[in-house]
Amino acid sequence: MLSLQGILSEHPFPRLLNFLHETDQTGRLLLKHSGISKTVYVVQGLAVNVESSLRDETLGRYLIKQGKITEDDYKKSVELMMNQGVQQGASLVKLGALKPKEFYQAVKDQTREKLLTCFGWTEGEYRYQEEISFVEDTYRFEMPFIPIMREGLARFFPDEFLDRELALVPDGPLIPEADLLERISSWNLEREESERVLQIDGEKGLPEILSSAGTKEKRLFYLLLMVGLIKPSNQLAEKLREVIPGEKHAPLQREALFVSLSAPEVIDEEPIEAEGDEDKRGEDEILAEYMEIKSKDYFSLLNVDSDAEDDDIEQAYHRKMAEFARDCFVPGLSAEAEARLEEINTQYIRAYESLRSPEHREKYRQELIGKSEFKARPGLEAERFLQKGMEYVRARDWAKAQEMFEKAVELSPEEPEYFGYLGWAVYSNEELDFEQRRDMAIEKLAKAIEINPNMDSIHVFMGKIYKDGGDAEEAIAEFRLALQCNPNCREAARELKAYGVET
Question: Can you list the pairs that 408-412 forms with residues at least 24 positions away whose Cβ atoms lie under 8 Å?
Answer without folding.
Answer: 408/382, 408/383, 409/382, 411/378, 411/379, 411/381, 411/382, 411/385, 412/55, 412/378, 412/379, 412/382
